[in-house]
Structure formats: C-alpha cells, structure tokens
Design a protein that fits this description.
Elements: H1 2-23, H2 33-40, H3 44-47, H4 56-66, H5 70-83, H6 89-98
Helix pairs in contact: 1-5, 2-4
Protein name: Non-specific lipid-transfer protein
Domain Bifunctional inhibitor/plant lipid transfer protein/seed storage helical: 33-113
Keywords: Lipid-binding, Signal, Transport
C-alpha cells in the first residue's frame, strides 16, 4: 500500500511539474509545484483516506504565508488543482477551513486559477 501511494505521489509530482512549465509565465516569480508538494506532503494520508489530518495544517499555513503575490497564489492554485486527482475532493476542499486558513479560491479541478488574485 505504501509503495502504491509513493508511486502515485511521484506520478502527481511529475505531472504537476510538466503542467507548471506551461502555466507559469517566464520572468514572474511564483511558487513552484515542488514547493507546494513539500508543504502539502503531510496532507497526503488524510486526503487519500489512509491517515489522520496530522501535521497537515502546519503545511497549509506555511504555504498560505509563502504565497504573497498574485502569481504565487495562481501558481499554488494550479498546482493544487493538478494534484486533485486521486484524492478525496471533499476533504481537500475542506482543508483550509479545518486549518483556520482563508484562501481566495476553492480547491477543485474546476477552479479557474487565472482569476485568483
């Protein structure tokens, strides 16, 4: 089971990195998907249904603090959106509220990240 989660996570990371090359305009500072994955890694067991919330809130709060600019927030949004596959979307969307963090968009595959300010 752990090996399958690890392979799935690595596949998501690869897909996210490829996606981000196309999404983030060159020359604008933005948080990369590797950074997003690092912050969100503690949430993986919870959103895949294999573990508790655990240290997830620390990652969410840290990521929210790091995303200071509009390009940062749009980049984080795009990364989260692309990571949504294979997770419980209800749990993922509820994470900010559970952790007491207010973000300007819903974590969902249907979110238009270009409209995030």
């Amino acid at each position: 089971m752990a090996a399958m989660i690890k392979k799935t996570c690595m596949l998501f990371v690869a897909a996210v990195l490829v996606t981000m090359v196309a999404v983030v305009p060159r020359g604008e500072a933005a948080i990369g998907c590797g950074t997003v994955v690092s912050y969100m890694k503690p949430c993986l067991p919870y959103v895949t249904g294999s573990g508790p919330l655990g240290g997830c809130c620390g990652g969410i709060k840290g990521l929210n603090s790091a995303a200071k600019t509009t390009p940062d927030r749009q980049s984080v949004c795009a990364c989260l959106k692309s990571l949504a596959g294979g997770v419980n979307l209800g749990k993922a969307a509820a994470l900010p509220g559970q952790c007491g963090v207010n973000i300007p968009y819903k974590i969902s595959p249907s979110t238009d990240c270009s409209k995030v300010k």
